[in-house]
Each structure stands twice: as structure tokens, then as C-alpha cells.
Amino acid sequence: MAGSLGLTPESLKASGRSSENLSLLILQGKIKRDPEGYETELQLIYKQFKTSVDLFQQQAALSFSSVGGIGSDPSVSKDLGDRAMFLAHVTPFYPKQLSEFPAQLTDLLRTSCLAMPSGLRNHVAQALILLMNRKSLVIEDLLALFLDIQTLGDKNLRALAFGHIVQTIRKMSITDPKHKSLQKIVISMLEQEDEAKAKRALATLCALHKKKIWLGDKNERVAIAICEACFHSSPRIMISALRFLLDYENIDDDDDSDAESDDDEDNKKIDQVVINRQAIYKANNKGTSSSKKKKQAKLQRAVKSIKRKQRSSSENTTSTFSPLNHLNDAQKFAERLFSRLQTIKGSGERVETRLMMIKVIARTIGLHKLHLLSFYSFLQNYAMPHVKDITQILAAAVQSCHDGVPSDAVEPLFKQIVNQFVHDKSRPEAIAVGLNVVREMCLRIHDLMTEELLQDLALYKKSHEKAISAAARSLIALFREINPSLLVKKDRGRPGATIAKPKQYGESNVFSNVPNVELLQESDNESGSDGDQDDDDVELPIGDDVEQEVIPDDCGSEDEAEEDSNDGDDMNNTEDYSDIDTSIGGDEDEEVNDSDEADTDSENEEIESEEDDGEASDSSVEDNGNKEKAKGKKRKIVDFDANLLSADTSLRALKRFAEAKNEKPSFDESDGILSNEDFRKIKELQAKKEAKIALARKGFKVPDSDQLSKKRVDPAKLEAHIRHKLTKEQRLELVKAGREDRGKYKSKAAVKQKKTGGSSNKQKEHRKNMPLAAIRSKAGKSKRTKKMKNSISGSQFRGRKAWK
Predict the structure, then answer these.
(1) Are 385 and 430 within 8 A, CB to CB?
(2) How far apart are CA 17 and CA 41, in angstroms?
(3) What is the reported pTM?
(4) Sign for the pseudo-dihedral over CA of 228, 232, 235, 240
(5) What is the pLDDT of residues 211-241, one digit of tens each?
(6) Across-strand partners of 538?
């Protein structure tokens, strides 16, 4: 049947021997239905393809000097492209007969791509993509070729090859071992001296990194290669790498991949705010309308601040995916880039390029908390108001400051900013920017500010310019939190608030346990104490006070009552000292309170054991104890040393105390390994705590150094509340925007004439036929009003009419 079909006129007509345009398409459809019946036609077209390739190469060699390739006979390139596409479609049906066709087509594009016209190049590239999709070729064979053909200057071919590379790698599995070989090919091309090839390789790496395909710890070499492109010999490659590193956090993420949609759902689940019902009820139902509005606004601000904090603390933020985070030796990278910046400074490089290098160095220093002390003296040359893009340079200076840098290295730059920007003869915009920069630098390095300078800067809060007064007030609010002792007494805030203790250089908070695990301990203690309170009538403390009051089951004789009163005096004395300590401490108060609570819990156990001893030994004193309990008399806990001395006096009580301690395991022993349920509960408790703090706080909370290092400094925020002078075009746009809702101007008479509908009440009153008595009363009323006006006005001369 195959032979008979191969010799029929229909098969010869479909094989391309006639001049019909759709002959190859007809044959392609028939081959897909019956591959075995059209082997003869396939061999004929395959021979025609080889002949077309030879003819095209001969014409290309003859017309090598021509600009448009083989412009003499365009039919050769058209036939070659059509047969290449036809064979690419039918290759899966004839794997043995067309086993050499993919390699031949690849060699044709590699060797003769410069001589091909644009249409033929696109057809051959589409044929290769089709073969790759049909598993006849692998991407390792075509990756280098597709990167090369992107440098030919053909926009359509470049978009086709680039999109295919990205989509093919995107569809690959994350655990596919081919990723390493592909990365090696692209990175080797990036390291070449050829600028065009290196540029396309860098664009491929950046696109795959931006789409979160080559991202993470397994693909660190990609991020390192992008960072190393900043030292390429070509200035264009260097500028492209710097621009990608700077603009990475502003890139809008694509929502095409399923992984990113899952991340968005996770983020929606994380952003949950726990607000007390009582606060919501008060904001909506209690108080006057104005107080309700204030409470509702405060509640909204609290919710926004909590959501912002949760969003910044979540791991799926763009700043965590920045290539600068994956540097193996960030210090060496910053030093190399800074040395190149110093050499470029005198070579006549553009100012924009130097500014980008400054911002990348500052970002690297702040992100990894590096020490590059000469960088601050370098920035000192640019810290002047008349310098172009000064706000971006100042933002870079702020970004490079962190708590690991000694204040002596940054102090010259800090003083120059204060002297150049903040003085009476400076412009209001410069003063506002200078105060904002001072606030941000002091937020990162507390030791920069002195008492005299702070008091001088605080006087700007009385300025009539909104930007200056707002910046000065924000500076005062900052030092209320970190070091209020530098402020004047009237600027320190409420006198009853705790006084913060400034951190020393190198001081850091080291976690010895899981963060916020104390919230879980407190919740467990509260739940256990609720059950104990019903049985033992124990009143637990409310708040963070050290003092606890316990209602004893048995109270002894009057001597014991006197001892209790003395113990109460001792506790009052200890409370005074504890108040002094908390007034000095800042962030350490919470740790002290936690330790005090732990001590008081142990003291509760001691007293309960002693009370058990009293019940076992002194049975005759129960009546007295019940009487004193009825009177509501409470006994206060003595300190730990007094309990220990009393326990030493009784060996039996000491034994029972030790047995009770051994029977009741500590939190670390019982819950040393936390479950997922425990971590979920810790998150809920932390959300409740943050909600309470946000509702009670009126100032702002000082962020941690890690949060400041991850957060990018926005130069626009340094210019907050500054009104820039508008151009004429901008003013006209504002005027036209205000006129959009209004119609065209018309006089009242024109509006009345075009009025549709019934007449007004005033018009009806004029036309109404009134009775004679009403007309006379109206006339008399008008006369009386005129007479009254004349009598009130008096004999004042009003001038004479001109026509009288």
C-alpha cells in the first residue's frame, strides 16, 4: 500500500512538485495520520532540504560582501525555511530517517547565521525550538547558540530566543541536575570580554533571578556572578549590574508561577491582627462622637503598624532575595568596589555611575554590617547642599551606618552635615533634610549626639516651616526613647515614664532561648494559677509588679502577725529599690521583671510547702487562721533569703521543699522541644502583646539593628513635608484638574432661559392673583419698612443723583 500511495498523482502533487502553496501543509497532515505510507515523499523532501542548504551556502559565499545576504534569489531562502519547518514537524514520526537532521540544522544556524536574512533566521530558530519541545534536542546543546544569536541585532530573533530560554528553564524541576551545567554555560559567557555576549548572559541571569527560578542557597553562584559583574571591564556591563542590584527591591514580582501564588496566600494568612474586643467596643460605642473618631483613628493606626511589622518580619520579602545577601566575602566585595570608585573618580566617569557605586557600597555595608571606615571620609567630600542628588548621597550615608561602626569614624561626617545643612542662613529645605538625616544616623549610632547639640537642634521645633518643625519634633521623640537625659526637662515627656538607658558600643542582646518563649511560660503559669486560685485562694499579680499578696490558710499567733507586718515593711523597702532600678533601665527592665517573676514563683512554692508544714504540725491554730481569713487579712511574701533561713531552721520543711521541687519539673525540662502548636501559640501571644503595645503607645518604637540593616533608606522620606516649587505646566495641570467637575460658565439669565420643568415658587407668587386686602397690607408693610430705614439712617448725606 505504501508503494502504491507513493506513486499516485495525489502524492506527487502533495510532495511539492506542483506550484501550489499548501502542498507541504497537506503532506504534513497526511504524514501525521499515516507515517509509513509517505516515506518516499519524506526522503524526497529531505534531499531537497540538503540541496537547498548547499545552494544557500554557495550563494552566501559568492555574495559575502553584500549587506542583505543573498539578495539575488530570495526564493532559495524561502524554500529552505519551509522545508526546515516541515521536517521539524515530522521528525518525531521518523526518528531513524531524520536522526541527523537536528544536528544539521544546528550547524546551519551556527555557521551561516550572519549570512541569513531575518526571515530565514527566524524560521530556523522556530524549527530548533520545535525540535527541542519534541525532545529531539536538549537545551544544553542550544543554550550557547541561542545566547550568541541574540547579539545579531535582530529584535524579533532576540525576543524569541530569550523568551524560549527563560520559559524552558522555568519549566524544569528545581531538583534537576541540569541547572548546574546551564548556569556554568551562562556564567562562562558572562566572564568573556565580548561586551555583547556578556550583556545577553547578564540579562538572562537577572531575568531568571528576578523570576525566582535561580534563587536560594542552591543557586548562590548566580547571585555571586551578578555581583561580580560590577567589576567587568566593560562599563555598560558594570552599569547594568549596579542598576539591577539597586532596583531589585522595587521590581514588581510576576504572578505567573504557582509558587509565587502560594507565597501570596501564606502572606495573607500571616497578616492577622489580634485586637482586644474591649478596645473595639470603646472605639465604637463609648464616649462622644469626637472621642469615638479619635479612638477609631488610633485603632486604625495600631492595626496598620502591626500589619507593617508583620509584613517586614515575614521571610518572603524582596530584600531577602537580593543578590547582595548571597555574597561569600562581602567585605572583599565592598573594598574592591570602593577602590574602583576611587580610581573612577578622576577618570571623567559620569556622576550617575559614581552615585550608583556609592549606593551599592552603602547597601552592602549596612546589610552585612561591614567596617569600611574610609568610606565615611569619602562621603564627606559630597556632604554639601549644592551637590547634585544630595539626598541620595545622604541616604547612602545613613544606610552605611550601623551599631557596629565606632562613632569616632562617623563623627566628622556627622558634624559636617550639621554644619552645612542646619544653620539659620540655610534654606528651609536644607534644614529639614539635615534634621532628618541627623535623626536617622542617631537612630543607628546613639553615641553621635551630644547634649548641647541636641538642645540646639530641638529649638527648631518652634519654626514656622512645617517641614523643619516636624523634623525637629521627630528628633525629640527619638531621644525620648533612646536617651532622654540629653533633652531638656520639658522635652522628656511624662515624668512617670521609665527612663531609657542608652546602649554602649558593641552591646547586643543575645538570645539564650527561643525568642518570645517567655510568653508561652506566662500563659502556662496563668492557666495553672487560675486552677490553683480556686483551691488555694491565691491572688496573682496584675501587671509587672514584684509584690504579691497571698491569703494564708492558717495564720499563727500574734507574733506571726507581727512578723508578717515586718515582712511587709521589708517588701516595701525592696519595692523602693526596684522602682529606682526600673527608672534607670530601658530594654533590660523586661528581663529583670521576668527574672523577678520567676523568683516570686519559687517563693510561692516555698510558702506553700511551709503552709503545708503548718497544717500538719499546728492543728490547734486553724480556728485563729479561719478568723483572720474571714477578716480579709493578707500576708505578703518575704524575699528569698528570708524563706531560705526559715527553711534551714526546720529540716523537715527543707526536705519537703526539695521533694516539691523535684516533683514539679521546670519548663525547660518538660517542654525542651517545642511543637508546631507551641510555635503557633507563641505567634498568637506575640500578636496580642504587639496589639496592646500599639494601642497604649503614643510615641514610636525604636526598631532593632537587624531590622534597620534590612530596611532600605528611601531618599524621598528625608524630604518629608517639603513643598517643592511647581513649574508652570504643573500649576496648569492642577488648575485644570480642579475644573473637571465644573461645567462651562453661564450667566444666570441663560440658565433661567434654558431651564426645563415647572416654575419656581417665587415665579408663581408673582403671577398669583391676590385679594385686595392682601395687596393693601403688603403695600403698607413696604411703606413702614422704608420709613423705619429712613428714621434709622438719620440725616447723613448720601450724595445727589446725577440725573436730578
Answers:
(1) yes
(2) 10
(3) 0.66
(4) negative
(5) 888 888 888 899 999 999 999 999 999 999 9
(6) 550
